[in-house]
Amino acid sequence: MRTLWTLTANDLRQRLRDKSVLIFGLVVPLALISVLNLVFGDTDQVELSRTTVAVDAPSGEVVGDALLATYDQLEGIPLTVERAENAEARVRDGDAQLAVTVPDGFDEALVGGEDTTVEVVQGDDTGLEVSVVVSVTRTVLDQYRAGVVASAAAGRAGMAPDEVATVAEQVAATASEMTLTEGRTSDQQLDTGAALVAGQAGLFLLFTVGFGVLGLLTERKQGTLARIRSAPVRAGTVVLSKALVSLVLGVVATGLLLTVGAVLFGAEFGSPVLVGLLIVCVVTAGTSLMFIIARVARTEEQANVAQSILAIGLGVAGGSFFPIAASGLLGTVLDLNPIAAFTRGLGITGGGGGLGDLAGPIAIMLGFAVVCLGLSRLIPDRTEAL
């Protein structure tokens, strides 16, 4: 055990003297996050512009007055509601973005079961605001239609006229308010800034952990490994020391990157303890992948190329630069990506989820590590045996 710690501490000192660890573990990902944040940082911020709604509705009509009252109560949308005798003309002239026309006698036609229509005309250049108003208009009309249907059913059931009217009023007035509450759930997706930080942390940890395990190839080339093996040191101890170096470098670099990213870009990842658990799991998965590369690569150059290809491939597929959505078999394969599982786990902790909510992402990352370690034992070593 003492030999293991000695080898690990010595290797860590050498790696910390190597500026490559600092560059790939912190400097490059932070620079890339900064650039990506400038490009995509405002994509999740929707700015609503003032919208004018022209309403042509006869005075005293219940439905028309209800629509006007509903528009006035809308919050969060800069809305100007104007009465106009020819609402559609105002849209054509560019004075309004939406025209709502309620025909004369609409209430009577609706109660009598006759076909009648509320005309809604949108301007050429409309956005989310108009879509919201149209949706609200449809909701109000559907509600009054439901009241008419309920009153007809009550009349056929033999209820008294005053009771039928009461039923119709209750149905028409029920649940007309829709409340929007900002909340955080255990499976919440990260916002743009946090997703960029998490994605780049997952991508570059695959480079960071390579400084440990792949150091076997470098030391073999330089002859250092042969000198170590000339001493009474087991081959397994040497390999384990490299794995510990990868784990330590990966955990420290990823933890620092998330911390600095949270401070600089306002990212929120939730409980530090749960985030630390996710970091350990994803670093374990990344380290296990390095063992496969160390087995199949003949030279240090081949190992670096293979590491870069796998890191970028897993990073892109895991959403390090932009989210990727897929279904079916492809979606299942993408879900098994440890980088995607890591990002999803941070979304869960950022949304207030607990340890039980992390069971899926943790199982994916640790399962990936087990499979890679198993393959590394089965794949023939193309380099010299230790």
From TrEMBL:
It comes from the Bacteria. Gene3D superfamilies: abc type-2 transporter like domain. It is found in: Cell membrane. It is a multi-pass membrane protein. Its main location: membrane. Residues 19-376 form the ABC-2 type transporter transmembrane domain. Keywords: Cell membrane, Membrane, Transmembrane, Transmembrane helix. Signal peptide: none annotated. The keyword Cell membrane applies. This is ABC transporter permease. The lineage of its organism: Bacteria, Bacillati, Actinomycetota, Actinomycetes, Micrococcales.
